[in-house]
Design a protein that fits this description.
mainly alpha, 13 helices
Length: 356
């Protein structure tokens, strides 16, 4: 978190839009790599398949934003002929009310999508920290009074589904029996002794992963297993309400206080001409749609880079030209954010381990 904050604040001071997603993921990777190395696991302590999937989403999404925004602006020009949409504002004159309504709608869409994607990353990272520092309280959902009972019933149902499908996967059945034994006679997960909570969490997580693999290899039972696995997973993957509220407030307050530097770069320095109302609306609509699509597929993407590339796409489609110096800086930030945050967080983790 500290490494990510240092990088994000540093780039904000110079008005350079960078990806919080890249920063957060890089910070987690940095700590994960160093921790794995310190434990003697080399680079084997990370799920590199998942890392590759995340990286692919972060690379493809800006390219998609550029292309879709260019196509969107061309389409808008064919359908809506009002030239006020395609003329840069003069002397800060406000747009007509109907154009302002469109901008409010598209801007609201970006904000909603941004919260849906970046908000989840923020909440996930905070929960990761809470689990690391206070596993007794956050390793499992001890606040739901009936979570242990629900989890146990779901595991029993899973065994019934497997038996009916004549699936005798010894590893899954063994893992299921471990969970059933650990939760035997318990209604709430708070009834699990504090000393055993981390071990029980590992047992539940192992079962969730095994069932996830089974869903992919045996699609015939996916419809039956998927909702049950979701119930089991909810016992260890949960977000406290105060974390949700805190992240939402942080996103809102941070944007309110520090928006101006980035807005000037995005609106005035990417293209050679000032951003028009039409370009802004198209770029925002494409950004919102791209991010919501990523949320649907559970992929983290960068709102910053999708929006920046979307604006560049509208500039190219409008023959407005782009300021290559600004685009070069944004591209360099895109390239270096991940390694910089990896190095920062990894270094801070090493220093922290030496001090504590």
């Amino acid at each position: 978190l500290i490494g990510g904050i240092i990088w994000n604040l540093g780039t904000w001071v110079i008005g350079l839009p960078v990806s919080t997603s890249h920063t957060l993921i890089g910070s987690i990777l940095g700590v994960g790599i160093v921790n794995s190395w310190m434990n003697g696991d080399g680079l084997g302590g990370l799920n590199w398949g998942q890392v590759a999937t995340v990286m692919m989403a972060l690379v493809i999404s800006p390219l998609l934003g550029f292309v879709l925004a260019a196509i969107g602006l061309i389409t808008m020009k064919l359908l809506i002929r009002d030239q006020r949409l395609y003329t840069p504002p003069v002397d800060n004159n406000p747009p007509p009310s109907w154009i302002r309504g469109i901008l409010i709608l598209t801007c609201g869409g970006v904000s909603f999508a941004h919260g849906s994607n970046d908000g989840q990353k923020g909440m996930g990272l905070i929960l990761l920290v809470l689990i690391g520092f206070m596993p007794v309280y956050y390793a499992m959902d001890i606040h739901d009074q009936h979570k242990a009972k629900a989890c146990r019933e779901a595991v029993l149902s899973v065994k019934q589904v497997l038996a009916q499908a004549n699936i005798t996967d010894a590893a899954i059945l063994k893992q299921a029996d471990k969970v059933l034994e650990s939760l035997d006679g318990k209604t709430s997960l708070a009834e699990v002794s504090e000393d055993n909570r981390w071990e029980v969490r590992k047992e539940i997580y192992g079962l969730v992963v095994a069932l996830g693999k089974l869903e992919k290899t045996t699609p015939d039972i996916t419809k039956s297993i998927l909702p049950l696995n979701h119930v089991i997973k909810s016992s260890i993957e949960f977000i406290p309400l105060w974390v949700v509220i805190g992240v939402a407030l942080s996103l809102g307050v941070g944007t309110t206080i520090g928006y101006k530097r980035i807005v000037i770069t995005v609106a005035e320095k990417i293209g050679k001409t000032h951003l028009t109302f039409g370009q802004g609306a198209v770029a925002e609509a494409v950004t919102a749609a791209t991010i919501l699509g990523a949320v649907f597929f559970h992929m983290p993407v960068s709102t910053t880079h999708v929006l920046s590339s979307g604006i560049a796409g509208t500039m190219a489609a409008n023959n407005s030209g782009v300021q290559f110096e600004t685009c070069r800086k944004i591209l360099l930030a895109w390239v270096f954010t991940l390694p910089a945050s990896i190095i920062l967080s990894g270094t801070l983790f090493i220093v922290g381990c030496m001090v504590v």
